[in-house]
Specification:
Four copies of one chain form a homotetramer. In chain A, the strands form three sheets. In chain A, strands 5, 6, 7, 8, 9, 10, 11 and 12 form an eight-stranded mixed β-sheet that branches. Chain A has a four-stranded antiparallel β-sheet with strand order 2-3-1-4, covered by helices on one side. The first copy, chain A, contains eight helices and 14 strands. In chain A, α3 packs parallel to α8 (about 250-270). The first copy, chain A, has helices spanning about 20-30, 65-75, 100-110, 130-135, 150-165, 180-185, 205-215, 250-270; strands at about 5-15, 35-40, 45-55, 80-85, 90-95, 115-120, 120-125, 140, 170, 190-195, 215-225, 235-240, 275-280, 280-285. In chain A, α4 links the parallel β7 and β8 (about 140). By secondary structure, chain A is α/β, with parallel strands linked by helices. The interface of B and D includes residues 200 and 215 of B.
Chain lengths: ~290, ~290, ~290, ~290
Amino acid sequence: MHPQRRYTLTAACPDRVGIVARVATFIADNRGWILETSHHADSDTEHYFMRIEIKADSLPFDLTEFRRRFRPIADEFAMDSRITDSAVKKRVVVLVSKQEHCLYDLLARWQSKELEIDIPCVISNHNDFRGFVEWHGIPFHHVPVTAENKSAAYAEVTRLFEEAQGDVMVLARYMQVLSPDLCARYPGRIINIHHSFLPSFVGAKPYHQAYQRGVKLIGATCHYVTAELDAGPIIEQDTVRIDHGDTVEDLVRYGKDIEKAVLARGLRYHVEDRVLLNGNRTVVFR
Amino acid sequence: MHPQRRYTLTAACPDRVGIVARVATFIADNRGWILETSHHADSDTEHYFMRIEIKADSLPFDLTEFRRRFRPIADEFAMDSRITDSAVKKRVVVLVSKQEHCLYDLLARWQSKELEIDIPCVISNHNDFRGFVEWHGIPFHHVPVTAENKSAAYAEVTRLFEEAQGDVMVLARYMQVLSPDLCARYPGRIINIHHSFLPSFVGAKPYHQAYQRGVKLIGATCHYVTAELDAGPIIEQDTVRIDHGDTVEDLVRYGKDIEKAVLARGLRYHVEDRVLLNGNRTVVFR
Amino acid sequence: MHPQRRYTLTAACPDRVGIVARVATFIADNRGWILETSHHADSDTEHYFMRIEIKADSLPFDLTEFRRRFRPIADEFAMDSRITDSAVKKRVVVLVSKQEHCLYDLLARWQSKELEIDIPCVISNHNDFRGFVEWHGIPFHHVPVTAENKSAAYAEVTRLFEEAQGDVMVLARYMQVLSPDLCARYPGRIINIHHSFLPSFVGAKPYHQAYQRGVKLIGATCHYVTAELDAGPIIEQDTVRIDHGDTVEDLVRYGKDIEKAVLARGLRYHVEDRVLLNGNRTVVFR
Amino acid sequence: MHPQRRYTLTAACPDRVGIVARVATFIADNRGWILETSHHADSDTEHYFMRIEIKADSLPFDLTEFRRRFRPIADEFAMDSRITDSAVKKRVVVLVSKQEHCLYDLLARWQSKELEIDIPCVISNHNDFRGFVEWHGIPFHHVPVTAENKSAAYAEVTRLFEEAQGDVMVLARYMQVLSPDLCARYPGRIINIHHSFLPSFVGAKPYHQAYQRGVKLIGATCHYVTAELDAGPIIEQDTVRIDHGDTVEDLVRYGKDIEKAVLARGLRYHVEDRVLLNGNRTVVFR
């Protein structure tokens, strides 16, 4: 948690000598005070990843100017870079169906400012949580999804997301498979919580699959959504111990606790710009 | 999770030959169908502990008659025994201050029927959560506690608990130390969540203490409240990894996640009659 | 750990009223002192599983007589039952290749009597550990396995296992796939440690597979070997957190620690008769 | 694991603008290829900590020259700095008493080169492990410790450590309290494994203490030894779940597994120069 305003610079580029020196010198020359910095050199892809947090008021310029001045360095190193301002909260659109555990959990974290985000709206294919969501002062949109109206429904979800100027879409146990179009439209911007320790138990009813296989731990996976079901880059996972005495219903109950914890961690890493894509894997600077 | 109605028999007694035989024969003679059974022989205290769940409709009598017929066995073995009916939900009175994480978490579990309890009321020394609680249709009582009015305040808490016919009082991050009188009045019926891995960091500001000591994991402890601060029988605990990069504020944030998980598990064990006292320790039949 | 000698009765049978009563009454009638007892009613398969430890010297008869007298009860309930004596140590034949972590770990546990087993011999397809094993006073057999001699090699392994009067064969990172014949010959008596959290990453190079998929935890699985590769009943599993900074070599290193821990736990459950088969799943009375 | 030879630079200094820029520019100007880099700004003590691994053969000079050229930078920033060469293995002197689990575990890791260390000798107050240690080709010294000879005994331990040119002394369940003199002589160079989750259960018989308190998890702590018993800077900790069915002997058995795992991790962090002291806390760049 950072009470003070800060700029966060993230960058990925082909690895070579001098990257840190160039960036750190630029920051030091502008008297920037570094609060936190993380680096990763991936020997596999020969790419370099970095994330640097700088006290906003230690720099003599604003965000726009920061970006402008940094551009030549980004170009020089062929960086995929990004600079964000902690004063500008990410806008998180939440999609939910009929299970409340992730929704309650996210709203509690938003309410207590533990998650520093805006929630411009909640979208659901059911009407169950309208009252609860609206009580918090958050707009609620009911977009039913049927076998017949999928195309129109996802068009409406897209429209609402755009209208809300959403930065990221969170599927908080949203029990519908998004269309490939929608997935492709927002790469690295749709976050799902899957109720198994992927790649085990892809698809429907993972707790039933886990029960049948007789595993001794179950898990949950927070990942970016891609067109291929449950195969996107993994942001965060965790597991919990079960035993022979646990029924499928017990697995569901234990699972909810890790689902909401893993989703909350994954979302926080995302909104704090801690997640960088490395092909179909992620670099997570925790 | 047991969709079917069941009676739960728990008992503790001095250990000797024939306890299981006597109880199991009684149940079998009445055609009782055992759903789940747990035993523990404590070699230290030489006491025997058991918990048996029986399908309610497999027995030819009701709860009152069950209790009446079991009494001679309880007497014969000097058992401290108890029989409960899953159709009668425990009444859980929640006490809260200004932090919402445990409250939101408990209400989500209550709402989704994951925790099969009644919440007759929420009591708080602040007014912050009145709207949220009342939106759920649960009465909210504001009982301010100051240095001067403690005695009157706890008398009022006691009155409200009695009026609500509470079975158990849950301190869901209630930031006041209950009076010894109140603690003594409800042994094994007041559950607290302490934000450290007891017996480390007793008392105030445990996360600050943990930070200063430089531990690599922090924890939370769900325990029964006794007159001695943070020293009552432990029901459940858990820990989470931290590192040098985490500030006290980060510890608080990580801690919230284990606090609510540990409290929810401990409370469920309690309301499902899975916790038996063994001196200042507990037997928890999970 | 039980310093005192005990008999352990394990049984599985179709569930019905009166099983516990019948068994417990038999034990009580013979003044048997129950040290530990565990039960599981599987609602899925409608089978009942139990495990009871009795002080050996509390019973008025020896193991043979115990078995003889228990037989009518086993027959009455169609039990698959078994009675063992803690004074008779299980004979564990260890198979190993070129990695030492599981071998050192097992020998340390055997040496310190933490694992109360006999190790009549170690078999390896390499000669590397001959000196180490023999220093401990344990016979070492080198049985090379090549693409051509598999049939003869496994015949030799079988012969050595029989000659050693082995109760259980432990594949302690034995890097050869046993023949279907050998697997079928000893159902529930060959224990393998697989270096992934099954059912993820079946087959070869699981750490490479895990690295490529970008998972955030890796695991290990201790299971009974069946003719179908990596698909037998799971006894024990565990996972450990990794991150983007870990190379495949790091995964291998972290993995070793959970492999040996999971194998040691699984083997202990097995030799203490805590594992009962329930189709392709296990009941583990920990 | 780094197959390639590397230099590791660690440094701690008062935090200010320009540290990273200065160091990274120095490395880049010499064409140094950075393999891994970690930073931590401690807002509490206002100190900056860093660790940088550089490919040895990317630099145009050797270790001595590297140190010489870096000295002005260290002086400029008042750094407590250190540069080591991965080709020079740390010399680890192991002290042990009568329990084998940590000793076997360390020797297995040394043997498999998982831990890249030299073990110049093992010292014990008992003779039990002489054969085992010597079989590995490692000298074994028996230094009995009694109430009367403590002073002479620790003088002999010191002499042997010096003679062995030890870099670090590891108390692998060495059941003697070192003299304050010895502790003070090697600050940050004596590593102990304590069998509790410190600061709980300081001193003797921690598993008995844990059993009596009825905790639901037990732990182990790897820490640097200081004159104050069990109060030195913590390097690594972990916990494992227990329950009411576990006796003190079970706690000891579970505990051994975390003791050896935690010690091995802590020692690896130390020998890879990943641990920096921050008062009585540690920065561990994992």
